[in-house]
Design goal:
Blueprint (H helix, E strand, L loop, with lengths): L23 H7 L13 H12 L3 E2 L7 E2 L11 E7 L8 E6 L4 E6 L4 H4 L14 E7 L2 H7 L2 H23 L3 E5 L4 H8 L7 E9 L1
Antiparallel strand pairs: 1-2, 3-4, 3-6, 4-5, 6-8, 7-8
Helix pairs in contact: 2-5, 4-5
This protein binds flavin mononucleotide (FMN).
Amino acid sequence: MKFKNYTRLNSDEMKRPKISPGTFQRLLSERSSFRGFSKKPVSLDQLSKILYFSAGTVRFLRQDLDSSRRPYPSAGAKYPLEIYPLLLVGSDIKKGLYHYNVIEHSLETLLRPINSADLKDIWMSQKWFRKASIILIITATFERTTEKYGQKGIGYSLIEAGHLGQNIYLVAQKIGIGCSAIGEFREDAIVKLLDINPDEELPIYYLALGN
Ligand SMILES: Cc1cc2nc3c(=O)[nH]c(=O)nc-3n(C[C@H](O)[C@H](O)[C@H](O)COP(=O)(O)O)c2cc1C
């Protein structure tokens, strides 16, 4: 049962707000997971918008980098998350594995070209997302947050991935790109692909993007 209600108690009804076309309320109410990918490319400009408006350094409280802030909240502004765009389909940016450099707003090339042999171990049973254009791999370097908050920092980092994921969904939808969260990937294979040290950084969330 996924709904809780107190049938014994009084309740006050609320008027459901109207949802006007073209509004943020409409964007929220229409957010949904898209799985009908067809290997159509996502352009560099579209990827740039998705990354910048969901995760970029969009505000500075002062002149220094340390005071930069992003579109999602982060406990203690520690920002433990990293994003690795895995481009399965090339466009005006080639197929490959990249790291989003949030300071420069650039894509650092980790592996290019990339071929199916490099990816063969990462997939699990769901086939639909192999036709996505891009898979955003989100990792957490938990220590950035646990250093200040102890073990609670693990939960905080996961919460932040949810905030970031929602931004990605909404920005993608706003610019006409389909998006779906994915829970299942072979994490050990992703760790190998990213060449990260699992004692320091772990993949925690994945979002497929495409047309
Ligand atoms: C953490 C998480 C993992 C998910 N993993 C998958 C997945 O592996 N495959 C899939 O098809 N959808 C996945 N989804 C998407 C959910 O199935 C989807 O959000 C849910 O059915 C509600 O539909 P909606 O997003 O269209 O509103 C995942 C969502 C979340 C938040």
